[in-house]
Amino acid sequence: xxxxxxxxxxxxxxxxxxxxxxxxxxxxxxxxxxxxxxxxxxxxxxxxxxxxxxxxxxxxxxxxxxxxxxxxxxxxxxxxxxxxxxxxxxxxxxxxxxxxxxxxxxxxxxxxxxxxxxxxxxxxxxxxxxxxxxxxxxxxxxxxxxxxxxxxxxxxxxxxxxxxxxxxxxxxxxxxxxxxxxxxxxxxxxxxxxxxxxx
Length: 199
Description:
Layout: H1 10-13, H2 20-40, H3 46-53, H4 57-63, H5 67-74, H6 78-91, H7 96-111, H8 117-124, H9 133-152, H10 162-179, H11 183-197
Helix pairs in contact: 2-3, 6-7, 6-9, 7-9, 7-10, 7-11, 8-10, 10-11
């Protein structure tokens, strides 16, 4: 059984040593960004993030030249959670339907971590220039891991491609994220996908 390929971002593993004051500013910016993006979504004001962190906009842009660089930094532990959820879905002693329900629900949770994040993550999956691209490859690998496991047990219809299923679920996630619909409205959409791919 294949395992999930984890993100080995140079950005994650090779963060240059910072002076103590620069590290404090970095940490304050991350904390402020979490607050602002939680309150206002991923399009929250960068100026407000700098203000809440008690630094100037120039300091923010020195650490994070683009909004996506800041979002990427907020996702440092995200790949670990993605991998854990994929492994939990595969190792659970439950039916193929329940496996997909568990994984797809987790998947949507991962791509809607902040309002507006789903569309950015969906776009980054095929954009090698995006700071989030390599993290998205972990999500792609995790999805393949779950679907390959089900295919190996004979639970999936022939011709089901993990990448196409991922795009469908990302579409559901993006719709849910942009409209604010609840789980009670998301679940029937996931059921349609599940019905379409299970034997």
